[in-house]
Design goal:
The protein has 778 residues and is of the alpha/beta class. The protein contains 23 helices and 36 strands. Keywords: 4Fe-4S, Iron, Iron-sulfur, Lyase, Metal-binding, Mitochondrion, Transit peptide, Tricarboxylic acid cycle.
């Protein structure tokens, strides 16, 4: 077998970032991805060996996701494998962290006492830039406001061998797609939309910071063996239908929790009609159905994209191992969905949840019937989901048609490039001018309004209004902190069309716009090149390579800082049952990580656990009074904010728990939603069901994530109850615990609580946290 080592070295050319690729032949098939860090590699041959070991053991065809996941097993010969039940010990190839989550991840890594990361890792500055005026001004303001945090991340990265992408470089997932993802790689990222990398045939999984620390420490990473949902695509995308419509449709089918515990694997003849970046869009928003990740099989669209982004030799090697990068014939899925792309219509999902799917042709009538505001106040395109060259080109093709008729957007219109490379290239190729001329404001290469980093001025808080975005998530108040904003997610093409029309009651396939001259005209379907005809323009150099010798690098955290705080270890379990826990809040309905630990203005405290804990559950609805951030302090009888009551309980030595509903903790991967309750004295979270990442994050921080054996037992708990959790001395995998509910009238109920702890995770609980346990084992 002919094998290739591909070495990718960084070469600076003026202010631009260039790549030089050289190839050499070797006896082993090894791709050395030292594109910014030494030693970054994945061994296709080793993965091939592991796949064969597992295939013989299981004696059946394997799905693509199984091949890559099992190909990264720490012990393929001995690992117990059963979808949906066993925990796998895996060896991911690399770690990516965005700046908001990297602060806590690096603080935890520093606490571990380890000198260097064990796998290639990068930090990406994209979350702390607030959209306010425009790209240049907003970026400079962010650099000024966040100087302390950026300095901490830059020096910590240099000290511990981590690559650092400076503010302005772009959104983590676009940078990963352009540089680090490739078919067969296993990558974990401290952001829930890490699955974006599945557009290049990788297993890219969103995790909390503590999971990232495990991998950076060289410890096998645990993942519950995923089920596999197959989505078979037939037909061909055309006209107004875009890749975004595939995931909008799937979200409507599976709902926000239908993918929990599963990998979504796209396959079938329709795959070849989707661009590589279009596949990434689909995988990215798979986070909204709770999926562990999503991916596509290796094909010529991926190969072309890798060649265009300086990774042609990797693509050539992937060709040699293509059988390992596509599903086996005859493989079986736990669930199968079929979508005919030729029949798929443009969709728009929302408001307030990303799984409320509607055909664009129906949304006007549905909005009228539902009382949703028809006027579109703002259209926003870009984000990590939809900011590719193709996305911007298709949006620009519509804007150009409008400009040719003298028409500009009726709604406000914003454009967020996904990376510095995309920004520079669309500016060079004229797309930026077209989008600006039609009324667009180009924002910084960052997350911006998608994560609530938006200083919105056109409506007052509480004012009912509609916005349409090409983003991935539209929970209540997520984009602009206004709970009355009705946010809809759709494709960049539909966003552009609705921004031009200024109303939801517009179907671009059939309806007409009116030019200033009075002429009525219909938009032609959008068009756009998948990739630029010339090479990408890399733009400005925004990367910091870690030094070979970092002994002189100092990482300082000012004790008086309100942005950064070194971590103190959480207390160990005392060895007894948890007695008389107070109910901090009984949550009613949807409770995402945005409700538990809000983003937006709170992002600035992501490196300071005590300060950010002041947002604990301030967005959750209290079932007692249907209010947010208003719970009864059972010690004083007064109603106060949730964090205030939690702090009062902690100060008085009173432990507490939270009671929640279905899919508790859906949304972002932010581990602050687990760190905060632990920091303020929480001991357990009891709910009907959990979202995957949040459940793991709670375990990592020494909390007990428990589920009602009988979901109706949720109704037995009252806000003024005291609850004891018994059976902890004999806590073991699969063995339920018991809760004794002590009511204020003196009566009691006993209910059964389930958990998903394995032996290793039980050790985390007993040690007080996973980090505590890591230190015990050093």
């Amino acid at each position: 077998m002919c094998s290739v080592i591909v070495q990718q070295n960084l070469v600076y050319s003026g202010a631009s970032l260039r790549f030089h690729v050289s190839a050499a032949f070797s006896a082993k098939a090894k791709v050395a991805m030292s594109r910014f860090e030494p030693g970054s590699s994945v061994n296709y041959e080793k993965m091939h060996e592991n796949i064969n070991i597992v295939r013989k053991r299981l004696n059946r065809p394997l799905t693509l996701s199984e091949k890559i996941v099992y190909g990264h097993l720490d012990n393929p010969a001995g690992q117990e494998i059963e979808r949906g039940r066993t925990y796998l010990r895996l060896r991911p190839d690399r770690v990516a962290m965005q700046d908001a989550t990297a602060q806590m991840a690096m603080l935890q890594f520093i606490s571990s006492g380890l000198p260097k990361v064990a796998v290639p890792s990068t930090i990406h500055c994209d979350h702390l830039i607030e959209a306010q005026i425009g790209a240049a001004q907003d970026l400079q303001r962010a650099k000024d406001v966040n100087q302390e945090v950026y300095n901490f991340l830059a020096t910590a990265a240099a000290k511990y061998g981590v690559g650092f992408w400076k503010p302005g470089s772009g959104i983590i997932h676009q940078i990963v797609l352009e540089n680090y993802a490739y078919p067969g790689v296993m990558l974990i990222g401290t952001d829930s939309h890490t699955p974006n990398g599945g557009g290049l045939g990788s297993i890219s999984i969103g995790v909390g910071g503590a999971d990232a620390v495990d991998v950076m420490a060289g410890i096998p990473w645990e993942l519950k063996c995923p089920k596999v949902i197959g989505v078979r695509l037939t037909g061909t995308l055309s006209g107004w239908t875009s890749p975004k419509d595939v995931i909008l449709k799937v979200a409507g089918i599976l709902t926000v929790k239908g993918g929990t515990g599963a990998i979504v694997e796209y396959h079938g003849p329709g795959v070849d009609s989707v661009s590589c970046t279009g596949m990434a869009t689909i995988c990215n928003m798979g986070a909204e159905i709770g999926a562990t990740t999503s991916l596509f099989p290796y094909n010529h669209r991926m190969k072309t994209y890798m060649e265009k982004t300086g990774r042609g030799e990797i693509a050539a090697l992937a060709d040699q191992f293509k059988d390992d990068l596509v599903p086996d014939k005859g493989c079986e899925y736990d669930q199968l969905i079929e979508i005919n792309l030729s029949e798929l219509k443009p969709h728009i999902n929302g408001p307030f949840t990303p799984d409320l799917a509607h055909p664009v042709s129906d949304i006007g009538a549905i909005a009228k019937k539902s009382g949703w505001p028809l006027e579109v106040k703002v259209g926003l395109i870009g984000s990590c989901t939809n900011s590719s060259y193709e996305d911007m080109g298709r949006a620009a093709s519509l804007a150009k048609q409008a400009l040719d008729k003298g028409l500009k957007c009726k709604a406000q219109f914003t454009v967020t490039p996904g990376s510095e490379q995309i920004r520079a290239t669309i500016e060079r190729d004229g797309y930026t001018k077209i989008l600006s001329d039609v009324g667009g404001v180009v924002l910084a290469n960052a997350c911006g309004p998608c994560i609530g980093q938006w200083d919105r001025k056109d409506v007052k808080k509480g004012e009912k209004n509609t916005i349409v975005t090409s983003y991935n998530r539209n929970f209540t108040a997520r984009n602009d902190a206004n709970p009355a904003t009705h946010a809809f997610v759709t494709s960049p093409e539909i966003v552009t069309a609705l921004a031009l029309a200024g109303t939801l009651n517009f179907n671009p396939e059939t309806d007409y716009l009116t030019a200033p001259s009075g002429e009525k005209f219909k938009l032609e379907p959008p068009t756009g090149d998948e990739l630029p005809s010339r090479d990408f323009d890399p733009g400005q150099d925004t990367y910091q390579h870690p030094p070979t010798d970092s002994s002189s690098v100092k990482v300082n955290v000012n004790p008086s800082s309100n942005r950064l705080q070194l971590l103190e270890p959480f207390d160990k379990w005392h060895g007894k049952d948890l007695e008389d826990l107070r109910v901090l809040i009984k949550v009613k309905g949807k409770c995402t990580t945005d409700h538990i630990s809000a983003a937006g203005p709170w992002l600035k405290f992501r490196g300071h656990l005590d300060n950010i804990s002041n947002n604990l559950l301030i967005g959750a609805v209290n079932i007692e009074n249907d209010a947010v951030n208003k719970v009864k302090n059972q010690l004083t009888g007064e109603y106060e904010g949730v964090p205030d009551v939690a702090r009062h309980y902690k100060a008085n030595g009173v432990n507490w728990l939270v009671v929640g509903d279905e899919n508790y903790g859906e949304g972002s991967s932010r581990e602050h939603a687990a760190l905060e309750p632990r920091h303020l004295g929480g001991r357990a979270i009891i709910v009907k069901s959990f979202a995957r990442i949040h459940e793991t994050n709670l375990k990592k921080q020494g909390l007990l994530p428990l589920t009602f054996a009988d979901p109706s037992d949720y109704d037995k708990i009252h806000p003024d109850d005291k609850i004891s959790i018994t059976g902890l001395k004999s806590l073991s995998p699969g063995k339920p615990l018991t809760a004794v509910i002590k009511h204020s009238d003196g009566s009691q109920d006993r209910i059964s609580l389930n958990h998903t702890f394995n032996e290793t995770q039980i050790e985390w609980f007993q040690a007080g946290s996973a980090l505590n346990r890591m230190k015990e084992l050093q």
